[in-house]
Design a protein that fits this description.
HD-Zip_IV; about 220 residues; HD-Zip_IV_C; HD-Zip IV C-terminal domain-containing protein
């Protein structure tokens, strides 16, 4: 998610003048291994929610729930967790997972071919003050180990949840996975999305691509 921060002097802009429009977009040129080569379109949106940070974290960790929010649909297919690796911390949801989604109907693959399985690599982590979920779909061939993993192009997207009042963040006041400490009084949710807008890093941003990702973030 570091590529969605303000590092690198990225210039963020909005597409509308509406005060209710919290979506900001930017672009960056990607030329190094580990991500698709080309012009990357980034979009972020931040909002305040009257829900416990950990409740929201647990809700968004599940692919089925995220699909309803980000895509306005229910996946309606079987989801299998192929690998689960704990990555520290006290929360049971702190892990790196690889999921396989078996689609009832073929979907369009990255090479314009249909496929009935989709793989999602996800990392989720929560501590006393913040929670992060980052994930990305992956090509089948790369998941099965037929290529060098260090060259696997990944464009992560996901969520960052923080307490509304950071000064309240202490062992005695923050929510924890034990459930015996007072729940968060709401949280700030930031959604970050990335998409390959062009395979040429020197291209200018296409307005249609910006409008598409903006519409996705407004659902």
């Amino acid at each position: 998610m570091i590529s969605l921060s303000s590092l690198g002097a990225q210039s963020w802009m909005n597409l509308t003048d509406s005060p209710e429009d919290t979506v900001r977009i930017s672009t960056r040129s990607a030329t190094e291994p580990g991500q698709p080569i080309g012009l990357i379109l980034c979009a972020v949106s931040t909002t305040r929610l009257p829900f416990s940070r950990l409740q929201l974290f647990d809700f968004l960790r599940y692919i089925q729930n995220r699909a309803q929010i980000m895509e306005g649909r229910s996946i309606g297919n079987s989801i299998h967790e192929l690998t689960h690796i704990a990555n520290g911390g006290s929360h049971s949801g702190n892990c790196i997972s690889l999921f396989r989604i078996d689609h009832a109907q073929p979907i369009q693959g990255p090479s314009s071919s249909s496929q009935i399985a989709e793989y999602v690599l996800q990392e989720s982590y929560s501590n006393e003050c913040e929670s992060v979920i980052a994930y990305s779909t992956m090509e089948v061939g790369r998941v099965l180990g037929r290529t060098d993993p260090s060259t696997t192009p990944i464009l992560p997207l996901g969520f960052v949840m923080v307490l509304i009042n950071q000064t309240r963040c202490s062992t005695a006041e923050c929510s924890t996975s034990t459930g015996n400490i007072r729940q968060d009084p709401g949280c700030i949710l930031t959604v970050g999305v990335q998409a390959l807008a062009s395979t040429n890093p020197d291209d200018d941003l296409n307005l249609d691509a910006a409008i598409t990702i903006h519409s996705k973030m407004m659902i």
